[in-house]
Amino acid sequence: MRSFTDRKNRTWQIDIDVTAIKRVRGLTGVYLPELINDGGKPLNDLVQDIPKLVDVLYALCQDQVERAGIDDEEFGRGFSGDALEKATEAFVEEIIDFFPNKQARESLRKLMKKSKEVSLLLLTKAEKQIDQLDLDSLAEKWMSSSGGLPASSASTQAPSPSGN
């Protein structure tokens, strides 16, 4: 069982078992055991579709949500930034733990680790490219392609009150 805290400081527990899988499929149409097919592509697609992911999390936490006296929209308001990242990590780890084959679990953990490493590498490379941007050169290119600087509000005169 995994837990995470949303951005409203509410703690939720994710416990994936057969009953939870049936509930998620009934409420969202997502069949959790299929998420690891095709090298985990369906799982990756789900975590990229944030509203769908939060729907799945809601289905997994439905009993807790009801006990908290909130609805699915209020539950969804608890997700952004770090809270969304932590919830996703908890969900993925819980999915991996569900599978009965130890070798499959270890392979999935390796796949997820490599996926994180690739994402970090891509972000690092993007940051380096951003840091190396020559802003003066970019501004010059923009100005030459657009025909110059836009008129500033200070150089634009308002019409006179008399209409002349």
Task: Please tag this protein with its features.
single chain; 164 residues; mainly alpha; two-stranded antiparallel sheet
Question: How do the SSEs run, as a string of H and E?
Answer: EEHHHHHHH
How many individual β-strands? 2
Structural class: mainly alpha
Average pLDDT, rounded to a whole number, is: 85
Uncertain spans, ≥5 residues at pLDDT below 50?
A: none
Short description:
The protein has 164 residues and is mainly alpha-helical. It has helices at residues 18-28, 37-48, 50-68, 72-76, 81-98, 102-131, 135-146, and strands spanning 2-5, 11-14.
Walk me through what this model shows.
With 164 residues, the protein is mostly helical. The protein has a domain at 2-108. Helices cover 65% and strands 5% of the residues. The protein is built from 7 helices and 2 strands, in the order E-E-H-H-H-H-H-H-H. The protein has helices spanning 18-28, 37-48, 50-68, 72-76, 81-98, 102-131, 135-146, and strands spanning 2-5, 11-14. Strands 1-2 form a two-stranded antiparallel sheet. A hairpin with a 5-residue loop joins strand 1 (2-5) and strand 2. Helix 1 packs across helix 3 (50-68) and helix 5 (81-98) packs antiparallel against helix 6 (102-131). The chain is extended, with a radius of gyration of 24 Å. The mean pLDDT is 85.
Give the SSE layout:
Blueprint: E1 2-5, E2 11-14, H1 18-28, H2 37-48, H3 50-68, H4 72-76, H5 81-98, H6 102-131, H7 135-146
Antiparallel strand pairs: 1-2
Helix pairs in contact: 1-3, 5-6
